[in-house]
Amino acid sequence: MEVRTGLMLFLVFMILQKGEGQLSETFYSKTCPKLESIVKQVVANKISQTFVTIPATLRLFFHDCFVEGCDASVLIASPNGDAEKDAPDNLSLAGDGFDTVIKAKQAVENKCPRVVSCADILALATKEVVAQAGGPSWKVELGRRDGLISQASRVAGNLPEPNATLIQLNAIFAKNNLTQTDMIALSGAHTNLVAKKGLFTSDEVLFTNPASQPTVIDFAQNPGDFNAAFITAMRKLGRVGVKTGKAGQIRGCDASVMIASRNHDAEKDSSDNLSLAGDGFDTVIKAKKAVEAKCPKVVSCADILAIATRDVIALAGGPSYKVELGRRDGLVSQASRVAGNLPEPNFNLTQLNTIFAKNNLSQTDMIALSGAHTLGFSHCKPFANRLYSFSPSSPVDPDLDPTYAEQLKQDCPPNVDPRIAVDMDPRTPRKFDNVYFKNLVVKKGLFTSDQVLFTDPASKQTVIDFAKNQTNFKAAFVTAMTKLGRVGVKTGKTGEIRVDCTAFNA
């Protein structure tokens, strides 16, 4: 999983097909009058869960329009890995962008079944993420239909490279009636990049080339000019290659999240699960579709998740191991059943041991599994008390390294945007290793429930062992993961083999 995707937006601009259809801002005024408010609420909920929603959705819209026109062809999943989204230039698209459209589509279908296209929902969601990120809002022209072609082979060469020159950028945009000013304005979406200068050559060239420099200076000095130009460019972009009338179709989106509930009362909707990144769900969905193409109605979603977990660990440099298989999928998914079954970030050792013991996992298992915090991220709220309100005598947790605490304060100031996230492991956040335990030894555990593993004498020696001996840690991790994979499994005639991981079988 690309942890920093939500903080960095790499926009690329290229459009293959030209053409404008008959679109209207009031297209659904009679058939789905509450469409925009439905999408707006879904987007707001999604953004509250993860900042990744904003750049991921915006980038998804650009990639969709740039290849086959704005027809949602980038959403199509292929079991053979040959759909548009599978092209090398699209593999970096974040799962949260897809998840945003999927959730919005589900909410819209609940009110207006088979009326609104995925293409229009993506266009509306893009407007909403821009507006909710503090950017301009605009009226979205609607009436697109979903495309019938989605091929990876049609993507290559149709997205500009990050080292493109101004001439190359202008040539790409001109094919689709987008001017140099449009191109520069759309490039302004890179404002979501955490940087103070152009990251790509194609960014920096906009300022270094005399032909575009005055526009860049104008936009830098006059936010109103930039916002107006951005709106104009986005509306023009939204018309590229659209299908209207009898062209294309109105389809249901091809992917969803694990058991999705229209009433938002499924297990995934629990407050403890809202921070789960869309990329994790997307991984299982894609794997399930590929498996179904070869072995229909045979392999459970539970087994696919277990295998995928092993593989992402191995690909991140962690150990590989044999996965016990034969699970069946459960028939219950309720948000109300989650509370009290997951460890909290402020747990002490006794509380951690108690909750793991319920699942036949020992203290050593618990410590080894905690080592998975060498990967991933956390929003600021779960550890804010360690920075600002630990105790009356010490606002900062004394078991937190002072330098690390200051770094965290910079990343997570008081009243920080709840979408901001930081790495669980400040040293090697994208590598599965034993550095997590080395961090604990020097007081750089992010959660109280992390650092307590070293400060409590009952668990300290295990942490020291894992910090010194990566082989011991990985062996213990494999043992713990195998035991975890046996917890509460359904086998034999219990449960079911879901055809779609997002829903119980009919």
TrEMBL record:
Top EC class, one word: oxidoreductase
Cofactor note text: Binds 2 calcium ions per subunit. Binds 1 heme b (iron(II)-protoporphyrin IX) group per subunit.
SUPFAM superfamilies membership: Heme-dependent peroxidases
Cofactor list: Ca(2+); heme b
Binding site for substrate: P343
Binding, Ca(2+) 2: T374, D425, T428, D433
Keyword Amino-acid biosynthesis recorded: no
Domain Plant heme peroxidase family profile: 22-505
UniProt keywords, alphabetically: Calcium, Disulfide bond, Heme, Hydrogen peroxide, Iron, Metal-binding, Oxidoreductase, Peroxidase, Secreted, Signal
The reaction(s) this protein catalyses: 2 a phenolic donor + H2O2 = 2 a phenolic radical donor + 2 H2O
Residues that hold Ca(2+) 1 according to the record: G252, D254, S256, E267
Cysteine-cysteine disulfides: C301-C501, C380-C412
Catalytic activity, EC: 1.11.1.7
GO terms classed as biological process: hydrogen peroxide catabolic process; response to oxidative stress
GO molecular function: heme binding; lactoperoxidase activity; metal ion binding
Annotated positions binding heme b: H373
Signal sequence segment: 1-21
Biological function: Removal of H(2)O(2), oxidation of toxic reductants, biosynthesis and degradation of lignin, suberization, auxin catabolism, response to environmental stresses such as wounding, pathogen attack and oxidative stress. These functions might be dependent on each isozyme/isoform in each plant tissue.
PANTHER family: PEROXIDASE, PTHR31517
Similarity comment: family membership: Belongs to the peroxidase family. Ascorbate peroxidase subfamily.
Name by which UniProt lists this protein: peroxidase
